Amino acid sequence: MTGPLTDEVLTEFAENVSYADGPEVRAMANELLVLRPRVAELETQLARVRETHQPVDALNIRHHPNGRLTRVCSGCGTDDGNWQIYPCPTIRALEVQS
Ligand SMILES: [Zn+2]
User: Fold this and answer.
1) pTM of the predicted protein model
2) Any idea where the domains of the chain sit in the sequence?
3) Confidence category of residue 1, pLDDT binned at 50, 70, 90
4) What is the whole-number distance in angstroms between the Cα of residue 11 and the centre of ligand 1?
């Protein structure tokens, strides 16, 4: 198998494994078939979280008495009733850690 492991490549692999491929390969194929729908479900859920936490510009008069646009989260607020500065804790938690 060469090239990128696209959904199509993985599906073809998983669906075309036969008894002749041996137990380890068959186990991998079964695992792929079980895990792929779960990964797709999690990606959909992640997209909904990101949709909820969009950056929007709001007029900030609390820290800037004359008003100034500040990027805030469309889905989060603070305990004192203000917008949460973007990126909010939820979006920061989704960032890839290196
Ligand atoms: Zn947020």
Assistant:
1) 0.69
2) 7-50, 54-94
3) low
4) 35
